[in-house]
Amino acid sequence: MKIKKLMIGLADTESATLRDxxxxxxxxxxxxxxxxxxxxxxxxxxxxxxxxxMTKAYYADKYFSVYPKMxxxxxxxxxxxxxxxxxxxxxxxEHGVSVFAAYNAGFDLRALQNxxxxxxYTGNIFNADYKTLCIWQFGCEAKLTQKSYxxxxxxxxxxxxKNNIMTNAEKAYRYCSGDLSFVEDHTALSDARIEVQILxxxxxxxxxxxxxxxxxxxxxxxxxxx
Length: 226
Known about the structure:
Blueprint: E1 7-15, E2 22-30, E3 36-44, H1 45-48, H2 51-54, H3 61-64, H4 66-72, E4 77-79, H5 81-94, E5 97-102, H6 105-118, E6 131-134, H7 135-144, H8 147-156, H9 169-177, H10 188-204, H11 219-225
Parallel strand pairs: 1-5, 3-4, 5-6
Antiparallel strand pairs: 1-2, 2-3
């Protein structure tokens, strides 16, 4: 009997607030080895077109610098929210996705759903039930609790003002890839691509997969190792 291949829909969002207003959304459909079979990226027309919302965004400078060039170069397209959600659902179904993943899955799921409701729509954004995989949780369990990461982080100053070892996607990618000078773009597709590599490295560790474990502050377990 042939075992069905695990397919994962990995998404990243950039939002104008911590609760909603997603303006940049991307997803990669991948297998456990990190092979990407499809990737897509859009600006959300209703949010990106609102200067009032965009000027409040944490990365507001990209509204005037990065995204206009991406649009003119054809590297990203702007589409209405419902079209984006419909295409994501269609792609997930066609490629047999059974897992939704994001680096901080609790944040991304909340931001997507809240944006849906903010724009006046009801119901779940997904047409199917997916297992949820928080890459941050998995990364902390499978990679960042390694003593070599704690030593590296302390040596290179990857610590917060409160002296906690950092566990964000940028630092996780540096450790997993060996590119210690890597700087995260904080645009959705670019960030999703590095998260694909982090997730693939986590799978290679052969650890138990923490499905449906979100919002558990996994950074705490890394401090215990340090």
